[in-house]
Amino acid sequence: MECSKGYIEDIVSKKGLELVWVDDCIGTRRKNYLCLNKHLLKYPVFCNSVLVHELQHTSGYALKDLAIDSFQGSLFKTFSFCIKHPKAFWSFIPIDKFKGEWYIDISTILIYLFILLMLVVFISVR
Ligand SMILES: [Zn+2]
Hints:
The chain is an alpha+beta fold. It has five helices and five strands. The protein has a single domain (5-125), classed as Zincin-like, CATH 3.30.2010. The strands form two sheets. Strands 1-3-2 form a three-stranded mixed beta sheet. The longest helix is centred in the last third of the chain and has 20 residues, at 106-125. The chain is globular and about 55 Å long. The protein starts with a helix and ends with a helix.
């Protein structure tokens, strides 16, 4: 599976997005920017799944984004990547600043709220 820098830059620009290589998240969409972790290039299969995931996201906030984040991606692969590149753990913080603007990741907040709700339900039925 191909996941070279040139291949990714080509796909992303064909989608009309601007690619930014970062190290403080795994991958994310911020308006028309697609941020990808530069270390992903070392893991072609995971890199490709992150790229496919991020390209499916909308440039704003939509229900579709929540569905993509809830049902797609491997938590195990995500964690193994973060352990090797700890700065990527910032991906789990739902608020961040990028190019002078604040971004709130509603999907992540809703997933946390869901986990919290499940914990409350689990504890209260014991
Ligand atoms: Zn996502």
